[in-house]
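Hello, quick one for you while I still have it in my head. I'm working through a protein record and want to make sense of it properly. Would you mind checking whether the tokens look sensible for this chain? I owe you a coffee for this, so here goes:
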Amino acid sequence: MPKRADQRPSPGGSRQRPQARPRLWLVRAAAIVLCAGAAAFLVVRPWSPANRTGKTGASPAIPPPEDERKVFAEYAGSDTCRSCHEEAYSLWERSNHGLAERVPTLALDRAAFEPTRSFKHGAQQTSVRLDGTNFLVTCLGLSGSNETHAVVRVIGNDPLRQFLVAAPGGRLQTLEASYDLHRNEWFNVYGTEDRRPGEWGNWTGRGMNWNSMCAACHNTRVRKNYDEAADTYHTDMAQLTVSCESCHGPLKTHVEWQNQYGKSGKKDPTLPTFNHQQVLGNCGFCHARRSDLTGDFKPGDSFFDQQSLAIVDQSERYYPDGQVWEEDYEFAAFLGSRMHARGVYCLDCHNPHSMKTLLPGNWLCLRCHNGSYTNAPVIDPVAHSHHKVFGYSADGKLVNTDLTAYKPHEIKETGGECVNCHMPQTAYMQRHWRHDHGFTIPDPLLTKQYGIPNACNRCHADKSADWALENCVAWYGQKMEGPTRQRAQWIAQARRGDASARQPLLAVLAGNDSPYWKAAAASLLGQWAGEPKVRDALLKSLEDPDPLVREQAVRVLEPLAAQPDSPVAAALRKVLDDSVRSVRVSAAWALRSSLPAGTQAARDLQYYLRLNSDQPTGQMQEGAFTLARGQPQEALAHYEKAVAWDPNSAASRHDLAVALSALGRTREAIEQLEAACRLEPKEAEYEFKLALAWNEAGSVDKAVAALEQAVRLDPRHARAWFNLGLARNTLGQTDSALEALVRAETLAPDDPQIPYARATILAHLGRNPEARVAAERALQLNPGYADAQRLVEDLSKPPAPR
């Protein structure tokens, strides 16, 4: 379900549709604090999308909107498949794909709307009823009172259904009122959150807009067709619902050929075929947390040339061991799994038409883990799980493998089901339990150390992690000390800013781990990108065979490319010609202030920005782009629109403050930053930026108060400590200023500005020997630091005679 878009917009991190909370980016700003001869810039985090295909060839061109009729004319419709593929069609039409989106019908929906009923959620009440053939929902609307809306579409099927109503501007909006098919019960998809009309995530807002958030994955070959100037949609599609051609691609030529030559015995030259990676990418389009780069993905396209994938990184989207934390769907977790590394793909486990598993319970896993595949270790479910397993006797002997001997209700999961340990379930949208496809190893030690959940305590919630760990050690011994545990520990440490994780992650980046985990390592190494060893490793990763790794390297190198003549900027300019669109786009974004117009990378970036301009995050991106290009007034308009569309977004207000500051409207910038701090009271970065703004306004005492709050919220915020030292010194608080600078230098030992600032204060106090040591430290870090060199020279001069 949608969360408020109040983080930084990132094509490399979010799937802009319901149930996904985007991780967004912060623009690089121009406000400066000048104290004690040292400058502190608004330090911000970068944006960048992800992709992954081979390095040969170029990304396919994005079809222009005027080609829509031609594109849709290539589709025959699922009804044309029925006569030749009756069994497959029968499985599909009853599946969650076949019923992904449809018009409401009495046959399927009467039970939900009749008899009339109502339910409370938070301070609101919603009622539903059937009026002839009209399915009506009465709920709180933009008018501030209850409004009645007719359902025009139903999306989703099992276990829950959601409902669409029409809104101005060609919009369809997804109601929060949802129906639980199994319990015959209505509920609010946000539980007790009590979202209000006008909020981004309320059913009236853009977070629940079908055109932007739902249509592409619930239908076939959707074109969003958003008109930014008019703020309207003209959304169209090849066919309602996830049809046969959603997976097989356009089939009109196939149908025509079969009608003419089907009985001739000739080989059909029109039938599309896809390899495993293409099938996996096709599933991933809808089953991934991602951002859409083109708005026109079709079967056969490489996922990683059309989409930008959210992976394990500094955020809390995933746990450090790869388990899903937020609503991340299945694709990325699967890419990081050992199953994917061994060549398994979706259709090895799922029927391609019903999408149900090919076999129930452990029988599915034992298709491979029974000794018939050299790539899969033999697993005895009872001995391995130490739990009861359906189909086995108490002494662990297999009783019956003939599934026809059992009635469906007799085949049920037990504690010894493989998926209960290696594919734990999480409930999303209140009622939808989904299996994690990371195939992770339950590890109670990681729970004790870093709060990472384990499958043992998910079931045995009344027991402690110590109890679970004791049993795991007794059963598996040293096997628990495996590489996946170590990797999770390094990632968890890196998220805490622990430098001890740096070297192990460099080893992962340079080693033979899967591209997914190498990309994750690159992302986490970004906090140390300024260090030569890390920087060089990331620069080398720009040549990695896998674009997912290249994209992450571009993203974390972006802050080092601020100067056009820097070696990093030169390296990223080469990446503008990468064969994969997402890598080009991430490089184009990193170099946006100096990006040459008319290049393929520039066109790709502009297309992406236009495609996503219907969301607050998209407006923030357009604002960041125009601000970087020296157009603060235009950037201001984009940021104001983002705030108007999502007034509860702290990130939007922060970025609006940046634009206001660039235009010299400091007081207005302070108002927006204060609002951001109220909206996100635990976000140290907003307090830090507020302090810089107060300093710019000449209120150093208020700047000190905000900086002190920033370091309380985040004791590891080096730039906040640095600026706090400078500000305290301005107020004459030299001892506490030096203490703050020492803290800053401990956290950022490679920043020459910090010892130089400390040296200036010490020199002012007459503590020349200490000042000289500090200034020489700054020169060691940056031999070209002219101010530090002059200070050393001044301190080396003999005192003037009295």
In short: Confidence is low (pLDDT under 50) at residues 3-57. The radius of gyration is 29 Å.
